[in-house]
Amino acid sequence: MWNRFKPDLKLRLTLRVAAISALCFTAIAAYFLVEADRSVHARIDAIAALAARTLELQHNKIQWVNNPRSEFPDLDSVAASVMTPGLCLAFRSGNGDVVQRFCGGAPNADGEPPRVFAAFYRSLFDPGREAVRPVESRGAKVGEAVVWIDPAVLTAQAWHEAGRLMAALAIALPLLCALVYAALARALRPTQVVRAGLERIAANDLTARLPPFDLAELSAIREVFNHLAETLATTLAERSELTRKLIALQDDERRHLARELHDEFGQSLAAIRALAASARHTAAQDCPALLAECDGIARTATDMMETLRGALFRLRPPDVDELGLVASLEGLVAGWNGRSRGRPRFDVRFDGAFENLPAAVGAGLYRIVQEALTNAAKHAGATRVTLELAARKVAGNEDRVIELCIADDGRLGDAAVKSGMGLLGMRERVAALGGRLSFETGPDRGATLRVVIPALADPIVMERAA
């Protein structure tokens, strides 16, 4: 569920590009504001220097012509050439009084910037700063030429320039994000092919291979992926071959052990029973007190014979190829019901025809059922075990599969036992037959074993698996 809310790589990279672009626009805006402030102060410095030089010339001219009635200071000529809206030009006498001042226009009230921006701009740039140049005559200071620009005008101009940049950002950023997302979607399209290949590998399709890619990084991934798939296929094939050999060796050992027990141990028990019967016959004539001991020996030998018969049946099951899978499984279930005396209760149901199964499939299914029933009865403490075997056609073709389902209501505390070596052996048998096995436990108790095996397979593989 959490993966549904995670942004994909395209969206994440697009958001990062958008954030970097916004930072770049902010840096550009800050640069333009700094350059504009520097240009303004350079201009008013130049105007102040021009005004001071003009006033010095005026003052020197008065002294040359000795005409005290000439007006001083006279800033009209300077103001006429440099005056712009918001610019203020003044002459300040030596005692600090402003003798003459000119100001050009007033800030436009309709274009006033927000107060927050105005306070921020004034705290950074000090737009009302004056440019002052001394006015000297014959080495003596007669006053100062002062130039400044109305802070409201500078703030409004800065807001106007910032607004233009923000408008450009509002238009360019969404377009940039759309182009980046489209480019990333096109560039990352091959990752869907990689994902599909991984899903096929996860589904045990080891024939999956990735096609060539244009990008060097994806080409490197392709080479590693294909090499891994080939290595995994080879490894699993070798493992399956080893598993088939181990299963065949195990079955051979079981048959050999069953033969040894039947020939040696079985004959010894039969001899003990015969000797016990002979001893009882002799005791009945000569020593009646030994009759009880003779009967005990006979019962013990009989019980051991029954135990041996059950062990032989488990080691060497009936010939499934001759009796058929259905009859063999019915006999197996009937034997469990007889030995357990109804606790647990074993039920078996069949659906479909099982007459033409390969011998290896029938023998493998019998061994799987035998192991599963043993786990359910001895380790899980189940009270009811249900076995269902069905032969079904695969959708889209004429091939058949055998579906086996064994469910019990046993304790979950012994799930580790049920999923241990017994389940491992069943997995190996199923894998050798080219099938699939799943093991599920219920929320409170009980477990279900499901096996799906193809009804037709390679005869050589089946012969090895048998």
Automatic annotation (TrEMBL):
Transmembrane segments: 13-34, 165-184
A Pfam family reported for this protein in Swiss-Prot or TrEMBL: HATPase_c
Membrane is among the record's keywords: yes
Species for this entry: Bradyrhizobium centrolobii
Residues of the signal peptide: none
Keywords from the UniProt entry: Kinase, Membrane, Phosphoprotein, Transferase, Transmembrane, Transmembrane helix, Two-component regulatory system
Catalyzed reactions per annotation: ATP + protein L-histidine = ADP + protein N-phospho-L-histidine
Keyword Kinase: yes
Protein name, entry field: histidine kinase
